[in-house]
Structures are given as C-alpha cells and as structure tokens.
Amino acid sequence: MTSSQAGLLTAVFLASAVEFVEAFTIVLAMGVTREWRSALWGTAAGIATLIAVTAVAGYALVRWLPESALQLAVGTLLLIFGLQWLRKAILRAAGLKTLHDEEQAFHQEREAALRASRDQRLGLDWFAFVVSFKAVLLEGLEVVFIVITFGVNADSVPLASAGAAAACVLVLVSGAILHRPLARVPENTLKFAVGLLLATFGTFWSVEGLGVVTASRESLEWPGGELAILVLLAVWSAVSCAAVMALRRAAPEPA
Amino acid sequence: MRYGRGFGRFWFDFVVGEDWRIAAGVVVVLGLGALALRAEVVSDQLLAVLIAAAIVALVMLSIVSAGYRRPTRAEEHR
Fold it and tell me: Which helix (H) or strand (E) element contains residue A234?
C-alpha cells in the first residue's frame, strides 16, 4: 500500500465515521420518536443516492480530465475543502467555537419530531422518512466529496469507498448495540486529523497539478517524491498546533 | 433563477465554507505559482516548496486573525 493509499483510507474512514455519527443521531431520534421503518427507509434511500452520485461523478471526472489537470482541479478543491475542516477544528480546540454535542443534537431532533404532524405517504411516516433521508444525504455528501477527490487522485475510488463503507458499518453496529447517541466519539479530534490529511494531500496534488501549465503538461515533481507527503503532514500538524496554542490566549475565560 | 442561486449558494457554502479568504488565497497563490512556473524563474522543485510554504503561511495567518476577531454567536455555533 502506497502512502497516498494509506492516507486515503485513514482520511475517508475517519471523515466517514464523524459524518455517520452525526447522521446516526438524527436517524435514531426519528426512529425512537416517530417510526423505525420510515427512518430506515429514509436512511436506505439516502445511502443509495450517495452511491449513485459517487459512481457517476467519479467516472465522469476520470474520463474527461487529463491527469495533471485532474490533480490541479481536484487537488485544489480537496485543499480548500480540507482547510475548512482544519479551520473549524483549530477554532474548536482553541475554545473559540462550540463543540458539537450529540446528546444535545439528539434532544433537539427529538423535540422537533414530537411537534411535527403525522403525514402518511407511500405507507410511510413522511416526516421521519424525509428527515432521515436528508440527514444521511447531507452528512454523506461530505464523505462522497472526499471519496471522489481523494480516490480519483490516488487512483483508488474503490479503496476510498471501502473505507467509507467500513465506517458506516462500524457506526451502525455500535449504534444498534448501544441504542443511544454516540456522544463519546471524539469528533473534534477526528475532524482535526481529517483536516490535516486533506490539507496535506490537497497541497501535494494541487502543486503537482500545476505541471499542466508547462509545455510537457506533466505533473510537477516534489523533492523526495511521495516522501514530501510526510514532510507536508508534519508541517501542517506543527503550525496547526501552534495556531491552537496562540488562539487559546484569545479565547474568552470560561464563566 | 431563485433555485439556481440557491444551488450555487449551497455548493459555495459546501466547498468554500465560512471564510472565503482562505479559498481566495489558495487560488491566488496557485495562480502566481503557475505564472512563475511558466516564466521558469526558479527550479520546479524549489517552486513546489515555495508554493506550499506560501499556502501554509497564508492559511495560518487567516485562521489566527479570524480567531482574534470577535466571532458572532451564529459563527460560534456553526
């Protein structure tokens, strides 16, 4: 397994675990408060849509773009998207942004489900179906984005999909056993790790892809080849930790 | 028209997120890198390192300055 593939598998697995935990909280609230059958149909429909989007978008990108242009376009998107995760994780670790609370999210969704009217369509509780479908689709869309961008650049969309599927199964099995929100998952730490990996690989590929503007149109070479990925990861980690420490001084004192 | 704008807004928020300056900075640095590559001012490998260093510096400056700005309540919870 190459370092790109190891990074791909780790990033996709962790990102998927975080996103599926958030989706699971909402589906659980719908199942407990409204009706399990409709919540599970909504979940299945959401997962089916995500698989279709991954297959179509992944296939189209690989077929239509030359390698260096793909690295530049997809690498830049991955970098910008990953920096969003890293920014949030740094601000949360520094205490400048509230942490995501699964217990609180569960109670909010539960209250909304109790207030909503009963509307039956296609033999399903429509509120539970639509809310579960939207939760899985919207949370999963971030996973699909990572699977496609990372998978296409590392030439391993199936491996990326396998990482996402493994995380999905792990969250579902854990949730089925515990039957309550997975509040103990260290979401910000996982998001921090994913943000670092996306920033690292996004930087690596977007710079490589700049080769598309040269006469040969071949990818730019990094000093040390793929070893540069490890150096980039170390640099992103060091400056992110330094940013957290600097920002902790700017954070308001807890009351 | 309204749906088109909503669709564009969704994808902008999805990819770019809360701080557009990070995305704009990354695009500007890569654009300048492309120009330097075509002009062949330094070796390709040195240029790769310089572009990466510029991206890291720019992003961290943006995050730290955002942290020192007082966030709104909506930003704190987003």
Answer: helix A227-248
